[in-house]
Design brief:
Length: 307
């Protein structure tokens, strides 16, 4: 059997995600007939049926579901390889660190100072993203390392925990939930998180096509440089989230260290008895051979241990 091509995988993923050949063709910017032929040729090449067609839609077979998972991983890996190679070939390389502003447990300034004293240290470029995007940024080659909170998708990553603290629930101070010092997830039935998911489900592992971690979804991270003060330039979504919480429209989970930075009389923070704590970790690509990445990980672990 001939080896699969990235074009075949890209075509199949589009159809598998859209479950409609017409929509997939528009997404790919091609006509539908050649897309249909390409999928039929792929099925013939593999000797299995990947999709069951009807006049209105397509559905995945068990073989198609397996290929979809593996195809996404393969396409991500190919894209990441190109991005990492281009970055490594720059005349002035940097270490790209993915994070969400203010989600560092107060450790970041000390980590940067410790890292700067490492022999393999490089200038830091910060890849800012919304909650839950950091693991994907490392996996797809937009970042070399990340500081991130659990839960996160660990596929293709190595990680080390740095510190653990409670998640607190932010609610409107004038709302009914604020009358209770603590709540359980079952008490949140009927309430929603900023991404629209039910609050009683707690935090979930971000998926492969976007994020769902109890916070607003954003299409992708944007690189920002640290200013001289070490503060990242950030177009934060937090003001929007806080305003919606104040209005009683939503609730949201935050690590305790972040709630200390954003004290507001209109917002109350409650302990959630049955929600797993927030663990801040440093993550990097599996099988990384970068001395700078190894030095950054050592610095993060040392600072966390001292703290």
């Amino acid at each position: 059997m001939n080896e699969l091509e990235t074009r075949q995988l890209r075509y199949f993923v589009a159809v598998a995600e859209e479950l409609h050949f017409g929509r997939a063709a528009r997404r790919l910017g091609i006509a539908q007939p050649p897309l249909t032929r390409a999928i039929k040729e792929l099925e013939h090449q593999l000797g299995v049926e990947l999709l069951r067609r009807t006049t209105r839609q397509a559905t995945l077979t068990p073989a198609g579901e397996v290929l979809l998972d593996d195809a996404r991983i393969a396409l991500d890996a190919v894209g990441a390889a190109g991005r990492r190679a281009r970055h490594a070939g720059r005349s002035a390389p940097t270490l790209r660190l993915a994070l969400k502003a203010d989600i560092d447990g107060g450790l970041l300034p000390r980590i940067l100072d410790t890292f700067a004293r490492e022999e393999a240290a490089l200038p830091i470029t910060v890849v800012l993203g919304r909650f839950g995007e950091q693991a994907h940024a490392v996996r797809d080659g937009h970042a070399d390392a990340a500081l991130l909170l659990n839960p996160f998708d660990e596929r293709g990553l190595d990680s080390e925990p740095l510190l653990t603290e409670p998640y607190l629930l932010a609610v409107a101070a004038a709302g009914p939930l604020a009358a209770h010092p603590t709540v359980r997830l079952a008490d949140l039935t009927g309430w929603h998180l900023p991404d629209g998911s039910p609050a009683e489900h707690g935090l979930v592992v971000p998926g492969r096509n976007g994020v769902r971690d109890g916070h607003i979804r954003h299409p992708g991270p944007a690189e920002r440089e640290y200013s001289a003060s070490g503060t990242p330039e950030d177009a934060s979504d937090l003001p929007q989230i806080f305003k919606l919480i104040e209005l009683g429209s939503i609730v949201c989970f935050f690590p305790a260290s972040l709630t200390r930075l954003y004290t507001r009389p209109e917002i109350a923070y409650l302990r959630v008895e049955d929600l797993a704590p927030a663990t801040l970790s440093v993550a990097w690509p599996q099988h990384s051979r970068s001395p700078a990445v190894a030095a950054f990980v050592r610095a993060a672990i040392k600072v966390a241990a001292d703290a």
